[in-house]
What does this fold into?
Amino acid sequence: MAYQRSPNHISPQPPMDPYSPSYSPIAYTSPTSFNHQQVFYQPQALSPIQVDDAQYDPNIHPYWRDRVVPRPGFRSPRALGPTQESSRIVIKAPIKPNESGSKQLLPPRSFGSPNQTKRQNKETKETKSKSPEIKPLPGKNHGLDKYAPSFVPQSLRNIQRLIHQLEPLPPVSPFPPSDYSNSFLLPHLVESRESQLLSRPPLSLEEYIPFDASHYHEHWYPILQAEVDCLCTQRSAVVLWNVTDLKLTDWKRSQFSLVVPGLRENYPRLDAGDLVKMRQVIASKNGFTEPFFGTGIAFEARVVASQKREGLVHLYSPTLEEYIQNYFTGIALYLAQTKDHIPFQLPLTFNISFLVNARPFCLMEAAVTDLHGAINVGLEDNLTTKWLFPTIKDITTTPPRWIADSGAPQNDLKWKDRDLNEEQKNAITSVVLRQWPVPYLISGPAGTGKTRTIVEAVLQILSVQPDACILLCAPSNPATDTLVLRLRTSLSPSQMFRLNDHGRAINSVPARIMPYCNIDTSAENKFSIPTFKELMKYRVVTCSCVDANILAQAQCTNRALMRMENEVISSIHPHSTPAPAAKPHWTHLIIDEAAQGSEPEFCIPISVVAADVQVHATGPSAGPGAQLSQPQLILCGDRHQLGPIVSSDEARKAELDMSLLQRLFERPLYANEAATIEHFRPRAHLRKNYRSHPVILMPPSALFYNDTLVPFASNGKMSWSGLPDNRLPVRIIGCESEEECIDEKSTWYNLGEIEVVMRTVRSLMKEANACDPPLKARNIGIISPFRAQVWKMREMLREEGLRDVDVGTVEDWQGRENRVIIVSCVRYNSRFLEDDFQKGLGLFQEPKRMNVAITRAKELLVIIGNPQLLQQDSYWKPYLQFALRNNLYEGPELDLDVDGNYISKLEASLVHNETGGAVDPEKIGVVIAGIVAGEVLRE
It folds into this structure.
């Protein structure tokens, strides 16, 4: 999508600096009077660009040049070529009803067999790979389309096609330092981990590559390339035209600020370390030449921080600072002496574009290469194969064995958390006291205590296994920080280490876990890695899955350490027969929130812990006191909530958006309960929900969790006049109000829904004392998929003294809860759903995002949205039917049939137990029909 300042509102050029010598990279004719603001520009032939690519990465193919951020240790080339032509994202005309078939409701997941469910998942993926097809809703005729893209003058576009002389940034130093491994590892054992992902153009995904152990790298390589290529194409379409408001914010640190409208909704998604290209633009004022000219000079800047609310990005660009010093001396002297006018708007104009930081994908490809080599080392039953492609044979021929000195282990474990239920204790016992030849999977819906189970498992492993060293990961830094916060009450900084990339901002880390981090004070207080000796002392190392690459680059993997141990022992004791076998340093890899990351992302920590060991058949038990001889892999998450973010349709069709947890659950070993003995099943499913009222659980139990949720929450009671029956604390309020946008569809808000939200909050607070316990403002949470809606609601709540109400996006609420949750869907017009789908936004055609939103509430859930749009969504439609069946809907009349589809056992139990027989016979018939159909399909 292209953003631009309207050409009809171009701000006049700032006055020239009277203390600076005139400068023209090509040719200027400048007035001598300082007060004369006109600048005349006469274009001339560009001088040859001095190209010095000595520090350019030779491992990057020319196809990717000027599209991706250089790897650490390399810089961008001096010659900045033309941007690639790419089609802009255009909002299409609404689809006519007779041109599109209506969305068909899929059979209930909860009623299907495993094979049926797998086929339904495949059909859903194929459907999601296409643009959402939803009938347009009647709306107002505005005449001119106010949402149409703004016009961009051709002269501005022509500047992007020129070759510019780029002033590149210095290379980023590799982290960890290249000499880190030399401090402990024998030189000839140091392995190179250079990725080959960008060494050639993207490969076609049309040719089918089987997904098995022997083609593991061949399968993932083109898929990762397709994702990077798609991101590059999207970034090339995002251009800030004729930017005149670049501001200097810190003169001594060479930092600038820039407003990026789409940043509010992560489009473009800019993270620390990304690069920005700024092509200098000159605006002509004489009326006889082109309105804009390029100077042939471009600058490079690196993103150091971002403020999403303001849409503001902070940039580091010493080359731009040097340019100001050389050619705007007066401004430079002024800025060096005072900070009173910081931020300072510069008298410069740019076309600004963005590069993709492909480094995470390169790290994934390098890890996939490592694991592919480990799979094909010649061992018939090697551990890596059993982790990535476990089979029923693996668990029957090599059953899990005891590794503790106890015959009744569960009774002997001294629980740190005394409120665990039997499901959680059984899962922890299986992880702590058994050695599994395959991954052990822990799944569970929201509110079932998955992270609580992981925390207790970590503490029990450390207690029972004195030699254990755990690598504890999560897909994101916030999720990893949560694990550290929960473990810090039991583990000291000498036992647990929080590993961060050196580029992470220190102020983004909670202060309470800073004692668990390592900071290099000599490198401007950046995160660092401790010495090898110190690192090996920690019992638990926590990091994000991508940051686990720091351990791989430092050669602190099990394979590298075991090879070093074998080399040293065999050299010192050459006559020992047999030579003592090396033991893995990392004994456990535990990944929490394992449904949120892609499989190649998880390959990074797996490549750290996987060891070159062969799994031998040992029988069901090796006897008391058996030692752990191989690392263990434990994955924990909810595959029905937010998953990996994938931009490429091709990569999505190739299932890059499927996590390793979900893929393993679909394999016969985990999906077929009758195939393995129950006692040896390498999985645990937590069903007891300790968060929500049973009525709140009814739709998600049927829609997403195979009708297995069991309510166990002990919450308070809501009393609110907005509910027809306080025993049914769910309300859907229909609102047919059109949405509005900020900065060319960068983010959206809906004033009509905001008013309904505010009315609901006021009503709840007015009746707060009738609740048990009394309701507080901090007990209310509001979820909206768009940040503009979030910010506007926050402002209005503050104006009314309700600043304690917690407002956030769906992603902000992942893993959180509150007594009352209000969901504002925002979207009214179906014409924008395709744009939402491309950007991964909204609550329509996004079942996992919807599932997160409707499972955060403990005592009351209120949903506000356009009912005409809701009833056309395959997942919101049965939710509306649930509301109509139970008189929980308020709003415009709906022409929607109420049937027995997606009736959960909880809802059937409600009808049977709580109505006292006074129920409509037709409703009883619908419920019974739904129950019978469900049982027949389940059988």
Notes: The domain at 694-896 is CATH 3.40.50.300 (Rossmann fold). The mean pLDDT is 80.
